[in-house]
Amino acid sequence: MPHALEEEVGITEYLSPEVQGFSGNFKERWQDFHVYEVDQGGVELHLSELITPGAVAAELKKNAEERREARSALGASFTFEPDAAAELDAALGQGNAQELQSFLQKQTVAEASSDAGEGAAEAPAFVDFSSAEIDGKEARKKAHAAILKHFGSFLNTETVELPEGARMLRIWMREAERKAKAPTPGSQAQTSGGKGKGKGKAKSKAKGKGGKGKGKDKQQDGQEKVESAFGTLRREGWPKDRPDYLYFRLYKENCNTGEAVSSIARCVGRSVKQFSFAGTKDKRAVTVQAICAHRLPADQLRRTVLHRLWDKRLRISDLEYRGERLRLGQLRGNRFKVVLRNIPPQADTDASAACVPEDGPEHCTLGQAFSAVKGGFLNYFGLQRFGTREVKTHQVGAAIIAGKWEEAVNLILGVYEGKAKRAAQESGGDRPSKLRRTDAGCVDAGQEATHGKVQQSTTDALTIFLETGDAQKALDVMPRSQHLERCLLGARARGLPFAEALRQLPHQAVSLYAHAAQSFIWNSVLSRRIREFGRHPVVGDLVFASPNAEAFDGDTCEISDVMVKDSSNAPDEDADLSEEDVRKLPAVRALQNEEEAAAVTLADVVLPLPGSEVVFPSNLTGVYEELSQRLLGLSISDFSNCSIVQCATSESNCTIKSRDRNVHAMSMQCPHVHLLSIWFQVVRLV
What we know:
The longest helix has 27 residues, at 507-533. The model is unreliable at 109-116, 184-216, 349-362, 420-447, 553-557, 559-582 and 668-674 (pLDDT under 50). This protein has 20 helices and 23 strands. The two termini are 36 Å apart. β10 (275-277) and β11 form a beta hairpin. The strands form 6 sheets. Strands 1, 2, 9, 10, 11, 12, 13, 22 and 23 form a 9-stranded mixed β-sheet that branches. It is elongated. It is an alpha+beta fold.
């Protein structure tokens, strides 16, 4: 089932209706659409390096060789290099520095002890330094840094507190720590029962956050107590001097943002709740955007490209730590590179021209069209907001807002009016974009066969549910790739009522359904506004009270972009990341007279989405109510009374403008007669 027609989702007007349009194929291939995020500083994001598996493997090999070389230098003849000796003397004090050297000179005894028998002396596992020469927090911090700078590949450091309250600096060998953590007789690893089953976890029925420690006692301050053969170490899970958030640029091909982030989260063993981004990018495209991860070490992410499950369609670069989390909407805009195919030759009088100027001649259709774009275009919510299946997302959203839980569940499953309708069965919907193309848009035969099996299994599962009502049997047949459908069927199989079944879905999915209903009304109101009041500001229109205010209309993405939450391996520190971002809307004011209306442009006029605590323009209040009743069967008040999801309001500009357009037309000797390559940037606020 193709995208909905524009008229079906409220898109009926044009900013320049007098300009003749032209036809062409948009996003015929996923390579035809490139999106580059522009951050709040105005920087267009691209990859600045290639973190390839080969480069990472070579880097790890080099580091391992350096560690072995440094470790092999230890022994009776070991001495500090002159520069290191001077720095350690200054940081630790001369006495502690000599004690550290003596500690390192004894370490090779451990290698020879296995050959020398039980009577051989063992290398000391750790050494404590007196606080007399290292007094104060800053001095201890300097001492930690000096030791780790020169010997961090095989030494660890920690400040330990003695029973009498004094603090000492403890240094130990990493290999001794690993040995100390090894299972011992009577430990949980051996008493958990089974041959290797349970992965070392004790048979305890205790639930809650206390069960996430896996043998470690996590304190309230986020530190862990690790029992070892050489004492109890208080080790922090994240360095205090390191910012909490790792930012990186994500390059992806032919997959949506949610799918890409879920894949990365799976490879690094983290929950998707620890990741955030400013906005989702198109699936059927080549895109680059910023991603933020909570307390994820950069070296761990770099190593992840070697993971056997790493998605080859993804690339990462520009890893850096920052102190603030990246939140939805924190971007200036996007820059697009678009190729339109099959442009009719009559659209341009010179089909072989190398360039179509922005201010083309009047008889040139392309020139007229792109000259008109300089004035901007109506800021409709696009077709992808409403899905590619026969049941559109705004229809599901209307059922959720109205409290028709059973109808909402059935619509998501594609069951309505006694039939099981699936866009995936009829045309593949958005699924074909996941198939790898070999040449000229041809789909790989093996992937096409696999995709066909998924389609058939999905249809079979829904047929079972429709004909028998047996959710468990349908769930057994439903492919694992159909996350939302499996979530709903699983809930029904457990006997949950329809409302509770909807609550089992990721909150973002339910929010997107509701937001699609809001977007549908917004599109319809904008069309009515243009038809009745024209393409200029009028009295009663709303504009931002502050000229520097910025519109925030959430994010444009599809339901297939939703990341299904994985609770496995989810650390305690990500609990605060599950809360929905809340952003205070800027104040608006109504245009009171003709003078005020003449002082602004249509690009300054904003329309609110229906929701809670909304301010409607006085000239359109009745229109909102009329269209909601007629198109969705809802009252405007229903948008603020939904019990499952909050329909938060926001304001969007009526028009937006593009910047830095660069248009090229090419005549190709192939079935695609004409190509039109377009560069342009869309910003959030003009």
